[in-house]
Amino acid sequence: MSFVAKHLPDKFYTEGDQRKSLRTAIFREVVANLIVHREYTNAQPSTFIIYVDKVETENANNPHGVGNLSVDNFSPFPKNPLIAKFFIQLGRVDELGSGVINVNKFIKEYSGQDNPTFIEGETFKMTIPLSKEVIDRAVDGVNDGAIEGAIEGATEGATEGVKEKLTTLLTAIINEEGKRTPFYKDVTKLTDSSIERYIKQLRENNLIEFKGNSSQTGGYYLTEELKRKLK
Prior knowledge:
The protein is of the alpha+beta class and 231 residues long. It is built from nine helices and nine strands. The strands form three sheets. The protein has a five-stranded antiparallel β-sheet, with helices on one face.
């Protein structure tokens, strides 16, 4: 679940008057399924892979039937009854069969897609579809984390207000490289003295650099070091 949280975004969602994590609701079931229903006498490793358009898992299986499972046509069957009971007592799964039910219940709201697949066979395969919106949110989240990390490294002892303004300025430069100070001043609404000070601080910490022959023809760009962090 830490791997999921690192690489996939969450989405604001309320059920009744309670906020609910759609990411947790979906992928807790997926991860629990890998553990609860695995065929442990088979040495084949389990896989959990995040692609650009889907999450796909594959697990060693002792099949109870063959083919695609759906909410309408499957009946829960405990592959490992003791492990299943243990996970239910821990509150890690709601009930036997909750994986198929909850993934189908929440996936449309999470990714805009409504065609998860659960295929029973010699291995058990799950495919959870992702949309471009989900991936864009994930990339934004990773970039935000990288930007915040870069600012933290450049501002030891600085106040939260200063860090926030530096983050705003650096984000503006990321979005529009090659511009000069007046442009970034208009975008960020920083004062003349503040923006000059913050640009100097970003340059001293090797986060941005000025390229060009003069203040009239040149502009500010990300350093190669920061580009590597963002990638």
